[in-house]
Each structure stands twice: as structure tokens, then as C-alpha cells.
Amino acid sequence: MIETELAIVGAGPAGLSAAIEAARAGVEVTVIDENAKPGGQLFKQIHKFFGSKEHRAGVRGFTIGHHLLEETRKLGVTILLDTKVWGIFKDLTLGISRGEEMDLVKAQKILLATGAIETPLSFPGWTLPGVMGAGAAQTLVNLHRVLPGRRFLMVGSGNVGLIVAYQLLQAGAEVSAVIDIAPIIGGYGVHASKIKRQGVRILPSYTILEAQGQEKVEQAIIAQMGQDGKAVPGTEETLEVDCICLAVGLNPLAELAWIAGCVFDYKGDRGGFIPKHTRRMETTVPGIFVAGDIAGIDEASCAMEEGKIAATAIAESLGRIKPIQGKRKIEKMGKNLNTLRSGPFGAARRKRARFLMQRGYAIAGSGLDYSGALSPGELKKIPGVPSERRMKKGPVAFLECNQNIPCDPCELACPRGAIRVGQPVTNLPVLKEEKCTGCGICIPSCPGLAIFVVDQSKKGREATLRLPYEFFPWPEAGSVVPALNREGKIVTTARVLKVSSAKAHDRTAVVTISVPKEFALEVRAIGPKPRVIP
Amino acid sequence: MDTIICRCEEVTEREITEAIEKGLITLNEIKKATRAGMGLCQGKICAKLVERIVSRETGRAPQEILPPTFRPPARPLPLGMFKEHPVSHIASAKGKRRKS
């Protein structure tokens, strides 16, 4: 029997954040995880996170993972790895096992931070090799460096689908299409734009009918969805793909909470049945707390905040911090959490879209919602885009951000105060064009890669463009490459003038190109993306 | 072609809809009748699929369809664990306790 003050099940973002917070308050913590390495899903998140500075916005997920591990090491938190929790018994005791050994953990408080599992989708052929969760493909590519296919279909356009599609491109694969049964793109428009301008088709109101192949996936058949929720006959399309990724949602992994006798609530927009919990993250079983995806599906940044809240409540109930102090901390963290959850995103947005669709209302006003690309008309209305008068004067930033995402690293990046987000953090960034010098420091700061600098002021026929770039190998200065528009179509050729990246930019390069002036407002990417597959 | 729903126990969609036609509409009933969700993964994957089929066939809302009962062991355990001395001490076993 192992005795500990706080047993945490799951060493992901929620569990580790809680372990750190509790250990800092002097609580003795034991974290248990069934995987060989701690970190949960963080180490396969190679993209930069959104949010504010206090949420570590602009930092790549795996770097956050390293920070958390470093911190647990410093604080002397015990992490039992390769260890499964197979039971939870009265008096807050856990049954654990490793290999063929088993043991019991008697804790004073338990935090379940078990995360989630990918939602499956069944269709004829879904059991063929080559059909897998988008998260599974992400694990293969980013952790094990194995590309499970050459040409992919992504089913689901939420942030997971969009981000994994982009990371598949980064790994050298082709993405044939990203489809979604909903009439709008589910995830952030900026994530959609990143793959759209590389030529990936994004098809809302589409469904997968079948996967075909002898021994493995060789084709996918997709079709348009009608208003009645059924495929429209005659719209079927066969895609030559060898891998189909399913990004259709996540389910909380809550067996332990069920076994413990927790009361559950149904929250369709948060992944289904989730253990009912207070604002302090305590379930209906005294002493058992939840944090992260088990408490409702959300972003990793929210999971970390919830872990901290649970740990603070636990430290307080163990008498390590004063109630008044705990209350204040929890209130502050709660506010942080609300900030992260503000804005029109997530599953709630899809629900609203379906509701409006059924009643025949217009759903969204932006190309980012439908196609992933901003239209020229929209561009003029965005507060981050300069006036034509300013464009002619010299280099200037284009903040092509028109969704209310909780995110503000661009504001902090600008040394001249030319970018204003303010409060709430879901505000669109406003460009103060008279203060902007077009220096481009903001370009690699944007986790959505939505900032560009355009200079149309030089004499002659050429304009200069600076773009964020996250593919390897970087293009060579002096080379001539195809220039793509927001829709991913090649519109002209570009000459690469310079490729630069500072350490602080964390592997996001800034590529300077020159294009004919008439394409300066249109070109937003260069390609074709280098292929590494033989 | 009939689509497999529970991969662990190779239960098809037709077997599940037939069970529903017989009046079995909870996930526990369907599990007992068809073995869907009784395999290695204990329904972690197929429970959601069976839930959708039940919802589609019966018109019940997802919140009315409870998941099947969960019991320990929540993870597959090797039989060797139940040998003579089942309880050891993972945390104190030499070289096993990792201070991370």
C-alpha cells in the first residue's frame, strides 16, 4: 500500500499543472500515468498555442510539456509511469498495476485527470487499415516520426482536424480534402486558412459514405449533405487516398468516476456525460476532483487552468493554504478560464450553426467560416488591415484576423504599440497604421500565421511581401517559386529575397518575396510545399 | 456488406439493430445480448457507436442513453497478477520508482 496526500490519475496538461500547483502549496503528490512518458497529448502538439501570456500563448505545446515536467522535477513530485489505475474503491483508494505487479494507493484526495478518447465514426470500410483517429495519426507523425499514409482525407473540420491536416502537410503528406457534415468550418478560421492557402480543399456540408480497398484504404467516397441530413444523390466523389483520419470529436474518459459513484451531467457540447462538479472541480463524491477533458472537452490551456483550480481547492481542504487565500486564487483562475472560453468558438458554435440552418438564417458572414479564405470585400472591413493610403506609403502589417479568438501575442510583440487587442482578449487586433513601420516582428508571433507585411511603395513593378513559413526545408534566397493566393491557387511566381528566423520565433521562418504589384494583396503563400515522400 | 461496430468482439451493425428490434434499448442490454463492448477495450470505442445506432433507431436523445455499467478492472489486467502474492509494492520496487 502506497500512502499519499494527493493521488492524480493522468500526467497530461491538467494532471501535471495540478501536481505543480499542489506541490508548491506543500502537498505531497503522486501522479500515476499508464503511458511510458508523462505529458499526455502535449508532446505531439507541435503548433503554437493561442491565448494570453498567462496561458503561455505563442508557445508550442511540447515546449509547455517540457516546462511542466521540469517544474514537477524541481518540486520532487513522484510520477509513477507505465502504471494503470484499474479500480477506485471507497476511502479514496486506487488499485494500480504495472506489468504483473499490483498495489493500492491510499490517498486523502484524488484528482481524476484522465483526459479523453477520440470519438469513432462507423461507415462501410471503417475497419480497413488506414482509417484512424486524427489524434492517432498525429501521434504517429509527431512522436514516432511515421507517416501513416501519403494522401489523406480528414473527416472533421474542428481544430483537431485542421491542425492535424496542417501537420500532415508539414510532414510531407498530401491532404486531399477536409470535410465536415456541419455547414461551417468548426475550428479557427486561421487554422483553416493555413491549409487552404496550401491548396487543401475544405468542404463543409460533406460526409463520408464509404472507405474502399482490398487490404487497406485505397479510396474514400464522399458526398454532399442535404438539408435533411442525408447525402445528396449524384454528389458522390471518389478520392484517391490511402489514409482517412477521423476528427469528429472526443469523449471524456470517465470510467473511474462512474465506478466511484459520481453523479453525471449530460453536456452534448462538452463531449457527453461528464462528472458533475463544482467550480472548485470537486465531484459529488467528497474528496474526488476532476480536471481537463474528463470535466468536459476543451483546449489544453483550459485543462491546465482547471488542474490549477482543483489543486488549489485540494491544498485548501488539506489546510495548506488559508480559505480566504484559496478563494481568491480560485476566483482569479476562474476568470482566466472564462477568458479562454469566451468568444464564439467550440462545439456551442456548431450547435448554433445547426439551429440557424434549420430556420433558414444566414449562419456566418465570413469566408473564413465557409471556405477558410477571406474574400477581398471582407478584407477591407477587418480592423487589422491598413488603408490604401497607408499601403502606398511603405511596408505595413496586415493582421488578417477576423474571428473573435481569445488570443493576443501580436499586441505584445509590437514594440511600437501599433497593434491593439485590449480587453476582452477576444477582441480583433486593431492596426494603428500610423504607428506601424512594417518591421515584421509581429509576423512570427501569431499562432495562427495570419500576419503578413506588404510593401507596395517601391518604384517599379514589384511589391515586397513577408510571410510566416513553417515547412522544411526553407526556400533558398534567389530561387523562384510559385506564389499562391488565399484559396491555394497559383497566381504568379515569386522571387525569394530572404529567409530569416530568430531563436525567439521558435522555428517559424519569415520569408521575404517579391511579386508583381498587382498580386501584392492576393499572394499569401509560396509553394509547392516541398515533398519528402519518395 | 454489414459494418462491424464492436471490433473487439466482431459485432455487426445488423446484430445490434436486430437486438434493438427485439426491444433491447439500453447499452447494457445490447452488450449482454450481443457482446458489443465486452472485449479488450470494454466499449471505449464502440459504446459511442452503439449509442448513435440506438438513438437513430429509437428516436431517443443521446442524454437518455446511459453508457454501460463500468466495473473494475477498468483496464485489462494480466492473469499473472492473481498468482500467489498478488500485491507487491510498485513504488518501493528497486529502480521502479521514478522521481520525475
Give a written overview of the molecule.
The complex is a heterodimer of chains A (534) and B (100). By secondary structure, chain A is an alpha/beta fold. Chain A folds into 3 domains: 206 residues, FAD/NAD(P)-binding domain, CATH 3.50.50; 129 residues, FAD/NAD(P)-binding domain, CATH 3.50.50.60; 151 residues, no CATH class. Chain A has 13 helices and 28 strands. In chain A, strands 1, 2, 3, 4, 5, 6 and 19 form a 7-stranded mixed beta sheet that branches. A 7-stranded antiparallel beta sheet of chain A has the order 20-23-24-27-26-25-28. In chain A, strands 8-15-9-10-11 form a 5-stranded parallel beta sheet. The C terminus of chain A is likely disordered. With 100 residues, chain B is mainly alpha-helical. Chain B has 3 helices and 2 strands; from the N terminus they run ββααα. Chain B has a two-stranded antiparallel sheet with strand order 1-2. In chain B, a hairpin with a 4-residue loop joins β1 and β2. The longest helix of chain B has 13 residues. Chain B is elongated, with a radius of gyration of 18 Å. The C terminus of chain B is likely disordered. The interface between A and B is large, with 49 and 40 residues.
Summarize the structure.
Chain A is an alpha/beta fold and 534 residues long. Chain A is built from 13 helices and 28 strands.
Radius of gyration of chain B: 18 Å
Radius of gyration of chain A: 24 Å
User: Biggest sheet of chain A, in brief?
Assistant: 7 strands, mixed
The rough form of chain B would be described as elongated
What would CATH call the architecture of the largest domain in chain A?
Answer: 3-Layer(bba) Sandwich
User: Structural class of the helices, strands and pairings of chain B?
Assistant: mainly alpha
**Biggest beta sheet attributes of chain B:** 2 strands, antiparallel
**Strand order in the largest sheet of chain B:** 1-2
CATH superfamily of the largest domain in chain A: FAD/NAD(P)-binding domain
Distance between the termini of chain B: 51 Å
CATH topology of the largest domain in chain A: FAD/NAD(P)-binding domain
Number of strands of chain B: 2
